[in-house]
Design goal:
By secondary structure, the protein is of the alpha/beta class. It has one domain: Rossmann fold. The protein contains nine helices and 17 strands. The strands form five sheets. The protein has a seven-stranded mixed beta sheet with strand order 9-8-7-10-11-17-14, sandwiched between helices. The radius of gyration is 19 Å and the shape is globular.
């Protein structure tokens, strides 16, 4: 039998009365992509996934860290198996007692967002969700269904490893980008887009698509790079790389960002947090051994990238679908 992880998503959606044509199409595409053996490393990842130990499932939060599964006796052996899914970027996470110190302290980002939202009994879509870390935080905050999408296969496999230990909870990661999502009508209560907007060639199109995925009066949570306050109405369009990233197309100031969001049809937009990204929040670790933020900053001036652009600064914006 082929591996079809999104049959569980179908079942959850049907139980919630959210089993519309959109979710059926999204699940079908997800299962099809797994059936196609999608990546050169997929057999290795799948073997590691199949070799994870059988422990009682569990889900609890400990100081911002989702702790999934009961502890497994051979911690070093399990850690070695989980390293198959390197690099681990969003977390921290604890799987069957093994703590994964990820590149990002995503718990810090969540602490900036959580005071400004209410996810009780909500159906949530998370665009660019990575391994599903924020989905566990959303479930803990009361969401009844989280559907994340991310086209990076290693992150999807990390989510499956997390799900192995968490059990059949309603946090899913589909192997898709926003451009792959079905065109059928759908109405999520909240849509999150964190760390995505500056990677889109057409920010206006991305914002309009986010609007189309929300029910009237639904909530947008947008987190993105922004320029310093003295460039609030500006837009940086990097020629070449930004902080060593090839695919940064536009970084707006906060005023320009608010205007983009209003032009996409949102109302009551507010920027609730602006924060300079630090090398304590994003850094290399034993679980993400590639270069991280410190290698992208000017060694003589940490307020600038090595290309001479303003260093990464991130804003959280919350708006309503009109």
């Amino acid at each position: 039998m082929s591996f079809a992880p999104y049959n569980d998503l179908r079942r959850h959606c049907a139980a919630l009365g959210f089993g519309n044509q959109w979710t059926e199409a999204a699940c079908a595409l997800g299962n099809e992509r797994f059936a196609a053996c999608p990546h050169g490393d997929y057999p290795r990842w799948k073997a590691a996934l199949d070799g994870l130990p059988a422990v009682p499932p569990a889900f609890r939060m400990r100081e911002g860290m989702p702790c999934l599964g009961e502890d497994f006796q051979d911690q070093q052996g399990l850690a070695d198996e989980l390293m198959t899914f390197h690099p681990w970027r969003k977390g921290p996470l604890q799987l069957a007692g093994v703590t994964i110190d990820t590149e990002w302290r995503s718990d810090w980002k969540w602490s900036r967002i959580a005071p400004h939202i209410d996810l009780s009994a909500q159906r949530v879509l998370d665009i660019g969700c990575g391994n599903g870390y924020f989905g566990w935080r959303m479930l803990d905050a009361g969401a009844e269904l989280v559907i994340g999408v991310d086209p990076t296969w290693v992150f999807v496999m990390q989510w499956l490893a997390c799900r192995h230990f968490a059990g059949d909870l309603a946090n899913f990661v589909l192997p898709q980008g926003i451009e792959d999502l079905p065109e059928q009508e759908v109405a999520f209560d909240s849509v999150f887009s964190m760390g995505v907007l500056y990677h889109r060639r057409d920010p206006a199109h991305h914002l309009a698509r986010l609007h189309s995925l929300l029910k009237p009066g639904g909530t947008l949570v947008l987190e993105t790079l922004v320029l310093p306050d003295d460039q609030a109405d500006g837009v940086l369009v990097p020629e070449g790389r930004y902080a060593r990233m090839r695919n940064v197309w536009a970084v707006p100031g906060c005023e320009r960002l608010l205007r983009w969001v209003a032009e996409a049809g949102f109302s009551n937009a507010q920027i609730v947090d602006v924060n300079q990204t630090t090398v304590e929040e994003q850094r290399s670790t034993p679980w993400m051994t590639f270069e991280s933020l410190d290698k992208t900053l000017d060694p003589q001036d940490s307020a600038r990238t090595i290309e001479g652009h303003p260093a990464p600064r991130r804003a959280v914006l919350i708006a309503r679908s009109a």
